[in-house]
Amino acid sequence: MDRASALAAALAARGGPRLPAVEWPASIDSTSNRLKALARGGAPEWTVVLADVQTGGRGREGRTWASPPGGLYLSVLLRPRFEKVGLLPLAAGVAVAEAVDELGVRTELKWPNDVLASGRKLAGILSEAASGPAGVEWVALGIGVNVSQDAASLPPEMRGDLTSLVAEGAADVPVRAVASAVLARLAVWYDALRSTPSAVLSAWRSHAAAWWGSRVDVRAGETALRGRLVEVDGEGALVLELEGGERRRLLSGEVTRVRRTAGT
Ligand code: BTN
Question: Model's pTM, two decimal places?
Answer without folding.
Answer: 0.94
